[in-house]
Amino acid sequence: MQDSHTSESTQSNIEEAIVSGILSARIRPGTRLSENQLASVFGVSRTRVREAMMRLETRGIVTVSPRRGWFVVEPSAEEAMTVYEARRAIESGLLRGMRALTHEGRTVLVSHLDEEKAAMAAGDRQRLTCLMGDFHIRIAELGGNPILVDILRDLTARTILISMLYQSEFHAVQSHEGHCRIFEAMAAGDFVKAAELSVEHLDEVETGLDLTTRPDPLSELRSSLSLPPKTMSSQPAGTRKTATSKEK
Fold first, then answer.
1. In 10 A of CB 54, how many CB atoms?
2. 1 three-state secondary structure
């Protein structure tokens, strides 16, 4: 029988694996997460898997459908706007509370920005998706508050799910330049400016989303059958979302 420490560790491993898969864009919105398969992969009982899923549900990462099982969330347009609103509040507040960027912190961020450049040069979109989210998590880690790190990690994962649903183009260069401006302000010791730039950066990202788009529940099947993606014009009248992204 597993002791409580081992059980908690197993649940944490399952949660970490799923969140990491989302952060690296390997796990997409709407992905079904089979209790049986996860139990086999991690070598645990379905009860342990279910406990991990329930914790992920409280974190807004997965949802359960009666008689169908667990699925990665597909954020609505309204949920997307609240996620960005939360990120603006947390990240700007975190930066305003910082007093100095240590030599170690500077090295971490410079190395990270170099990785973003390398991934752009290689055209590695999946790697870029992971790095773009990690930049914000690294800043939270430099702030030294583990609670904020956990919250921002979950919000970043949800942001990536939102991007996969509503972002028609991947603006890697724009995001990288936004990160560079935030870093430059931090390096200069102007954390008020860094906070303002973080809000501008998130505004730019959110404005690039098309929140009028309805996610296509058959997108993976269409792709596997080499069929063209469903367009807005093919949807019945009156079914389109009317929510719009935040205006600057």
1. 14
2. coil
Highest mean pLDDT among 114-118, 206-210, 243-247: 114-118
DSSP 8-class letter at 73? -
Domain containing 64 equals 4-72
pLDDT at residue 200 greater than cutoff 50: yes
Determine the distance from the C-alpha atom of residue 138 to the mean position of all C-alpha atoms in its chain, rounded to a whole number: 14
Considering the domain architecture, whether residues 60 and 178 belong to the same structural domain is answered as no
Tokens coding 12: 């944490």
Residue 224 belongs to some domain of the structure: no
pLDDT at 142 over 70: yes
- Inside any domain, residue 67: yes
Asked whether residue 39 falls in the same domain as residue 83, the answer is no
Residue 131 in any domain: the answer is yes
- The CA–CA distances, whole Å, from 21 to 25, 27, 227 equal 6, 5, 26
